[in-house]
Amino acid sequence: MKIYRFEFKDEILFGVLKEENLHPISGSIFLKYRVGKRAIPIGRVTLLPPCEPTKIIGVGRNYASHSRELGNTVPKEPLFFLKPPSAVIGPNGVILYPRMSERVDYEGELAVVIKKEARQLSEGAEVEEFILGYTCFNDITARDLQARDVQFTRAKSFDTFASLGPCIATGLDPAGLHIKTFLNGKLRQSASTRNMIFSVPFLVRHVRTS
């Protein structure tokens, strides 16, 4: 199932895509909801970020190939960083280049949408009950500032540096997804989540142990 968040006639709605129509839902996508019969052509709406995260936790160097590309060692444990919610834009949003940077990079990523609070998870805890679904994420980074600062905060936190969407997809196996990034219609990145150093369940448990 694909869940969209969108604006239609000055109203912000969630809806489920069926063929080329969005069917608005009532209730909370994180708790219980009902899909209505009303159909809105997707071409008539403005797509918004599919969720409004209160916190964005990123994982650095989680592909061995990316670590080698940047000349870094492969991490032995997850390397977490934060991006502020103020950086979020929708799938068709405009990315603003900061004046202080001369190299702004794209980074196509898999985003995990958490639907309920999780604390003190055990090492073997099942994480599926905490996950609503998955969406596409462009982890935009001012690469020259990252190298200058020797940490991630400024380089990844500018407004518009967290592009989400277009939808939250449910019922997926996060271990078997293919992620592709295109720039001006040309393929620039292509990787499978099966090549992640740390799997999605491991990462969810690891970040939720405190």
Q: Mind explaining what this structure looks like?
A:
This protein is 12% helix and 38% strand. With 210 residues, it is mainly β. β1 (2-8) and β2 (11-18) form a beta hairpin.
Q: Report the β-strand fraction as a percent range.
A: 35-45%
Helix content: 10-25%
- Gross morphology is globular
- Helix tally equals 4
Question: What sequence of helices (H) and strands (E) makes up the elements?
Answer: EEEEEEEHEEEEEEHHEEEEH
Find the structural class using helix and strand composition. mainly beta
How many strands appear in the DSSP assignment?
A: 17
Q: Biggest sheet, open or closed, and with what strands and sense? A: 7 strands, antiparallel
Summarize the structure.
The protein has 210 residues and is mainly β. The chain has helices at residues 64-69, 143-149, 153-156, 200-207; strands at 2-8, 11-18, 21-27, 33-35, 40-41, 46-47, 56-60, 79-83, 88-89, 104-105, 108-114, 131-139, 141-142, 162-164, 168-169, 178-183, 186-192. The strands form five sheets. Strands 1, 2, 3, 4, 5, 6 and 15 form a seven-stranded antiparallel beta sheet that branches. It has a four-stranded mixed beta sheet with strand order 9-14-12-11, with no helix packed on it. The protein has a two-stranded antiparallel sheet with strand order 7-8.
